Structures are given as structure tokens and as C-alpha cells.
């Protein structure tokens, strides 16, 4: 309905040293991670080596009623997942956790990210007789680990041996009958962190905001290229030969993650404020009020207002209750669809020169509708400022940025042309050179969708997409 970007997944896992209501803990964790995927979700509980799971389409609150949680029962470990499908498509078999029964036991796997060599891996497994049930990359990761497990003394050794073959983005939690194994790709595209509750349970989650929901305190991030094993003896780390190249997705800070999360020591809220401050410095315009497009434009708008001295105001109210059951509007009703989601606050903008901060422009159609909302509410001027550089390229690492030919920044010859298309009086983007400043230049980031330079070779990824299309026909 909206030409916005979606994150693909969120993962959560808990290890208790006793039998506990772990399904409920994962439920609360996934609830906090719902922004990372709203299409489907699932939880697998391990109770003395026996796995029980529930996976379905829908939001966490829709799928996991009290009755469903009771059916999952208690246990000493559990993992969960929220998903928004991009590559791999919408297919029930792609809903995670992926539960596999192999010759050495059970395992449940949850994954956030996309591989760039999934099709290649899949083809090689299929040529040796493997049968895939879904089309997601996660199955290729699972097969890679199971293959190595046949000749490894432990699951963590199998993961360590499999990692060099798995290329791209993966922040994973794997559950066996006795342990949780969390691992993250050498670039660390997607976040993954560890927490601990006051009674000693370990928690692993995509974002730190999910730790707090189960009373866990943040301990640290899982390092890029690291394997963390959690079992009855506690937590131990394996540093792999894959190294730690650290190229965290900068768009996690700009848009995907929740502002109350901290990733690699940098608060997402801080990064967004900073983006707004930098925008004010590089793209100043005289105006009466600065407003943000909810949700991720709000913090950047505050940063812009602080740095420019122009008052901050509430320009939009967002309807937070549009769920999956919302009936998709047809082509003629699309204009109204934005109005159902967002309402301009006339009181704030009428007769004023407005600076509107948003996190990105994809095709430009949604931005044009939002600008129109402000004009209809009486704004005298609308100056759009974007807290990221122009999107020019696709993402291969777990987000659904549109194909290059649909991106407005690639189709237009200048910023002025885009401003005209969306109906703004002026338009300014965050300069690409400023991206490192959002994380205080403390580590490397992936900026591929802005620069076209990716930290890993993506030449196999195009092949994967074609392969997926073939499957869906
Ligand atoms: S290409 Fe863009 S969205 Fe994808 S991982 Fe890199 S910075 Fe993030």
C-alpha cells in the first residue's frame, strides 16, 4: 500500500536453567520486535529435549492467544521469529523457526538477513539429493550446518565450519536439545545482542529493546563473525576464522530499529538526532516549524529543530492500528490510504512554512501524498528534508528496497526534479559523507543502497532472485 521499506525479520531466544514459561518470554520479546516484521511469526519451545512449535501468518498478538501459548507449555529454552517476506516470498514453509530433525537430533533455527549465495548453495544441495520445503535462505543455512554436523563433535563446531560457506547477512539463533547457539556474519549487517535476567536466564535478541520486556539487562552485542554458545555451563564465545569486518547496516539506525534500542554502543535515538542536526547544517532553510513523519522521522526532526533553532511541532498523527486484516485499497482509493494512516495536524501547520523530515524517499508516490496532506491542512510552504542520502541501489542483505529502476532518485536527474515530483518547495538529503557521523565514526557500516558499493560480492544475488521467481511460477 505504501512505497516504504521493510525490514525482513526479528529473532529472539531465551535459555533458562530451570523449567519456566519460556513461551511467554519469547512472546513478549517478539512483541517488542514486531516492527521488524509483521507478516508471520513463530515460537519453538524446548522442553527436556522435546520441541513444540507454532508458526502462522499474522501479528504476534493475533497468532499467540493465551490458549496457543498454553499449548506450547513450559520448557527451559525457546526461540522465536517475526518475519516480513521479501526474497523467498510469502510461503507458509518459510515461516520460522525452521525446525529440522536430522540424524544427530533436533534443531530450531531463526534468521535475520539475506544471503547472497543462497541459490548457489541450494543448487549444490539439491544436486546431492536434498529436498527443500520453502524458498527462504534460512533453509540453505540449516542444510549447511546439518551437513557439517555429520562430521563435527558439536553443533557449534558445525556452525563454525559452515560459516565460511554462507555469504551475506545472517544474525541467527539455533536451538538444539541442550543449548542455544547464536552467530552473526563477519560483516554484522544485522544486529544481535545478549542480555541476562536477574535470575540468570540468558536472552538473545535482534534489538536491545526486546531484552527489557523480559527483565533482562543488556550484556553485549554478539560480535560480527562470533559464535556464542549458551548452555547449562553458562555462556562462552568462539571467535571464528571468518574475522570481524563489521559493516553494520546504517539504515538500521536511520529507519529499521526502534529508537530505544542501542546497537554496537550507539543509541538509535542518538543517531537519528544526529542525522537531523547534520541535515540542519547542510540543508538549512528558513521556516516556522519543523515536523517529523512518524515514526522514524520524529527523532531526526527534533535534531533538526535543536540545531536550527526553528521550533519543533507535531505535524502528523499516525493511526497505529492498521493490522494485516486492514482491507487493501484498490487503485482508486490509494490516495485515501495515506489519510487513513496519517492525519496532518492543521493547528500546527496552517499558514506556516513547514520543514517536514522523513527517513527516505523510495518511489516518491507516498512522499507526494504526504506533502499534499500538509498543503490541504493549510501549510504555506513545505520543505522536505530526508535523514538519509538518496536511494540509488538495491539491498541484498535483508530489506526490500525497490529495484533500481523504480527508485525516484535514479529516475530523476536532480534533487529539484524530485522536489517537483513530490510537490515540495524544496528538498534536501543527508550527504552520504555524513553517514559515518551517525555512529560517531566508531565502526564501518554498509551504505550499499546509497553508494552501490557493497561490503561483499553480490554477483550471485541476482541469480538467486531469478531462481526465486522460477519457483513461484
Ligand atoms: S544495502 Fe542499505 S539497507 Fe541494505 S544492508 Fe546495506 S545499508 Fe542496509
Attribute tags:
473 residues; alpha+beta; Rossmann fold; 18 helices; 26% strand; six-stranded antiparallel sheet; binds iron/sulfur cluster; Glutamine Phosphoribosylpyrophosphate, subunit 1, domain 1; single chain
List the helices and strands and how they pair.
Layout: E1 9-20, H1 22-32, E2 40-47, E3 50-57, H2 60-63, H3 66-72, E4 75-83, E5 98-102, E6 105-112, H4 118-127, H5 137-149, H6 155-162, E7 171-175, E8 180-184, E9 193-197, E10 202-205, H7 209-212, E11 216-221, E12 226-231, E13 234-239, E14 248-249, H8 250-256, E15 262-263, E16 266-267, H9 268-282, E17 289-292, H10 296-308, E18 316-318, H11 334-341, E19 342-344, H12 346-349, E20 353-358, H13 365-376, E21 381-386, H14 408-411, H15 415-422, E22 426-429, H16 435-438, E23 445-446, H17 448-451, H18 459-472
Parallel strand pairs: 14-23, 17-20, 20-21, 21-22
Antiparallel strand pairs: 1-4, 1-10, 2-3, 2-4, 5-6, 6-7, 7-8, 8-12, 9-10, 9-11, 12-13, 15-16, 18-19
Helix pairs in contact: 4-5, 5-6, 9-10
Iron/sulfur cluster (SF4) is lined by residues 189, 249-251, 395, 397, 399, 401, 446-449.
Amino acid at each position: 500500500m505504501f512505497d516504504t521499506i521493510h525490514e525482513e525479520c526479528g529473532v529472539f531466544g531465551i535459555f533458562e536453567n530451570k523449567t519456566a514459561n519460556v513461551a511467554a518470554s519469547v512472546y513478549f520479546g517478539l512483541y517488542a520486535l514486531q516492527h521488524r516484521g509483521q507478516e508471520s511469526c513463530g515460537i519453538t519451545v524446548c522442553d527436556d529435549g522435546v520441541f513444540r512449535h507454532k508458526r502462522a501468518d499474522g501479528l504476534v498478538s493475533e497468532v499467540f492467544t493465551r490458549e496457543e501459548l498454553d499449548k506450547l507449555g513450559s520448557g527451559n529454552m525457546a526461540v522465536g521469529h517475526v518475519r516480513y517476506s521479501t526474497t523467498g516470498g510469502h510461503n507458509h514453509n518459510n515461516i520460522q523457526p525452521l525446525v529440522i530433525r536430522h540424524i544427530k537430533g533436533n534443531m530450531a533455527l531463526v534468521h535475520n538477513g539475506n544471503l547472497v549465495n543462497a541459490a548457489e548453495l541450494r543448487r549444490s544441495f539439491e544436486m546431492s539429493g536434498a529436498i527443500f520445503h520453502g524458498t527462504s535462505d534460512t533453509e540453505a543455512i540449516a542444510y549447511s550446518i546439518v551437513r557439517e554436523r555429520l562430521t563435527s563433535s558439536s553443533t557449534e563446531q558445525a556452525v563454525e565450519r559452515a560459516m565460511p560457506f554462507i555469504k551475506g547477512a545472517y544474525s541467527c539463533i539455533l536451538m538444539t536439545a541442550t543449548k542455544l547457539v547464536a552467530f552473526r556474519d563477519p560483516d554484522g549487517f544485522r544486529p544481535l545482542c545478549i542480555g541476562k535476567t536477574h535470575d540468570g536466564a540468558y536472552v538473545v535478541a535482534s534489538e536491545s529493546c526486546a531484552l527489557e520486556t523480559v527483565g533482562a539487562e543488556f550484556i553485549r552485542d554478539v560480535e560480527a563473525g562470533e559464535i556464542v554458545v549458551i548452555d547449562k555451563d553458562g555462556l562462552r564465545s568462539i571467535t571464528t576464522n571468518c574475522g570481524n569486518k563489521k559493516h553494520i547496516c546504517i539504515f538500521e539506525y536511520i529507519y529499521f530499529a526502534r529508537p530505544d534500542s542501542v546497537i554496537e554502543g550507539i543509541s538509535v535515538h542518538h543517531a537519528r538526532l544526529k542525522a537531523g542536526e547534520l541535515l540542519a547544517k547542510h540543508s538549512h532553510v528558513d521556516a516556522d516549524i519543523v515536523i517529523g513523519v512518524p515514526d522514524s522521522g520524529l527523532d531526526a526532526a527534533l535534531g533538526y529543530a535543536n540545531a536550527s533553532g526553528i521550533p519543533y511541532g507535531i505535524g502528523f498523527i499516525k493511526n497505529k492500528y492498521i493490522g494485516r486484516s486492514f482491507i487493501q485499497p484498490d487503485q482508486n482509493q490509494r490516495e485515501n490510504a495515506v489519510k487513513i494512516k496519517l492525519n496532518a495536524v492543521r493547528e500546527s501547520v496552517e499558514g506556516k512554512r513547514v520543514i517536514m523530515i522523513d527517513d527516505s524517499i523510495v518511489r516518491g508516490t507516498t512522499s507526494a501524498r504526504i506533502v499534499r496532506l500538509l498543503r490541504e491542512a493549510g501549510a504555506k510552504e513545505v520543505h522536505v528534508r530526508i535523514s538519509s542520502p538518496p536511494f540509488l541501489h538495491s539491498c541484498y542483505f535483508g530489506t526490500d528496497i525497490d529495484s533500481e529502476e523504480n527508485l525516484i532518485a535514479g529516475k530523476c536527474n536532480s534533487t529539484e526534479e524530485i522536489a517537483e515530483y513530490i510537490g515540495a518547495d524544496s528538498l534536501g538529503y543527508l550527504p552520504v559523507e555524513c553517514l559515518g557521523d551517525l555512529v560517531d565514526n566508531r565502526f564501518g557500516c554498509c551504505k550499499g543502497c546509497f553508494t552501490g558499493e557493497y561490503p561483499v560480492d553480490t554477483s550471485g544475488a541476482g541469480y538467486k532472485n531469478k531462481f526465486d521467481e522460477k519457483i513461484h511460477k
